[in-house]
């Protein structure tokens, strides 16, 4: 089955202009089971095609280590590159730390500006 848009209790997923958009819902806390669900739903939307991913994590409140580890490795399946959009300085610090420790398997960069995040993905379309 082909999905152009999908939503679960944690995030919304859609494809526009050959970019996959993932937007976490407000006040979301991610554990391993929810991380696995997020990745499974994302892959379903992608229908076996790799995309650059614009991931708006401004709604994310917290995640446990198992979820972070899973998302940094298995969460990179069918992704060409990932731009993570954050808005708070604390989130920026914590996410920067996460990127250094977990080392995602595809090019991944943090942004507070959506236009810059989209520009980063352009070469991967």
TrEMBL record:
Pfam families: DUF7793 (PF25056). Residues 13-124 form the DUF7793 domain. InterPro entries: DUF7793. This is DUF7793 domain-containing protein. It comes from Flavobacterium frigoris (strain PS1).
């Amino acid at each position: 089955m082909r999905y152009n848009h999908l939503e679960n209790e944690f995030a919304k997923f859609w494809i526009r202009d050959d970019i996959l958009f993932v937007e976490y819902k407000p006040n979301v806390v991610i554990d391993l089971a929810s991380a696995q669900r997020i990745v499974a739903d994302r892959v379903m939307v992608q229908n076996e095609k790799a995309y650059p991913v614009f991931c708006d994590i401004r709604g994310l409140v917290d995640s446990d280590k198992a979820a972070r580890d899973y998302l940094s490795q298995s969460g990179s399946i069918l992704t060409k590159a990932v731009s993570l959009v954050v808005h708070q300085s604390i989130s920026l610090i914590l996410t920067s730390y996460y990127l250094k420790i977990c080392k995602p398997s595809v090019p991944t960069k943090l942004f507070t500006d959506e236009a810059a995040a989209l520009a980063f993905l352009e070469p991967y379309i």
